[in-house]
Every structure is written in structure tokens, then in C-alpha cells.
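Usage example:
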Amino acid sequence: MAYWLMKSEPSVYSIEDLERAGTDAWDGVRNYQARNYLRAMRRGDRAFFYHSNCPEPAVTGIMEIVREAYPDPTALDPASPYHDPRSTPDRPRWSAVDVRFVERLPHPVPLAAIKADPALAELPLVRRGNRLSVMPVTAAQWRRILELAGA
DNA sequence: GCCAACGTTGGC
DNA sequence: GCCAACGTTGGC
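Running the assembly step on the lines above writes:
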């Protein structure tokens, strides 16, 4: 089983939204490296839900991958803001996965705490201009973030 | 709202 | 294939 971290702006889609939905599609990813990570996900993998672009960016919860990569329907839908005319049913360019809400962290782990922790220095979130919206997390990093969350 | 760091686009 | 211009991300 692998571990991941996925970003979402809470004003667009928050951990609370996922909790209400139970299971939902993780779609709208329009970056090739992030897409390739989506395609590498397997059923049963776990992912952190990260709130970005908000007053306190933080890891806020945990989800489980329940459906492996399939063509992102929003890319094929002309009415969607994520529509990409270069993506066709024959040759879908973008992928989505389905995720299931697992839990909210007892204490969300703020970006500042992640940056301050030497054990998390290699996490892509705090490297390389941190633009990637889907990224792998090692087992050690996963455990460390859970520790910081008081879990 | 600002701006740095990226990724993408498109002219050549 | 280069690279400047442009758009986006996302912290602050």
C-alpha cells in the first residue's frame, strides 16, 4: 500500500465536503506529473487531504483510494470549467480517481509545522516550489505527520 | 493583493 | 528545439 498527499482549495472542495459526500471523484487535475501519480494509485492506498490557498494551509484529513484511474469526465464535458478539447473519449488525456472519506485529523497539521520538521524536509510539499497537487508520501513521512496530528 | 516559482504555449 | 511571454499556483 502506498501513501499520497492531494491538495484542494477548501473554498472549492474541502475535507468537510468529502465527509458529507462519503465517496467522490478526485478530478480536474491538469498537470502531467500529478496525473501520472493519479495513475499510479491503487485501491486501498491512503492519501492525506491538504487544504491549500487558504488562511492556514494544512493537512486536514485522510482518505482512501477506492477506484483506480479512469478518464476524467470533466475533461470531456464541454460544460465543465475543467473541459479540455484536446481530450477525447478515444484518447483521454486526463485521469481521475475515486476517494473515500476516512477521517479528519484530531489536529490538522499546518504547513508551518511541516516546514519546521527536519523529518519532513524531503516531502515534495515543501520542495521545488511546491506546485504539485498530487504527490507521493513515504511511510515514514506518513507516520510522522500522524504523530504531529496527535493521532 | 502581491509576487515568486513553475508549467505551458507558440513564434521563429 | 529554443526561449520569451503568459497563465497558474499558492504562500504570505
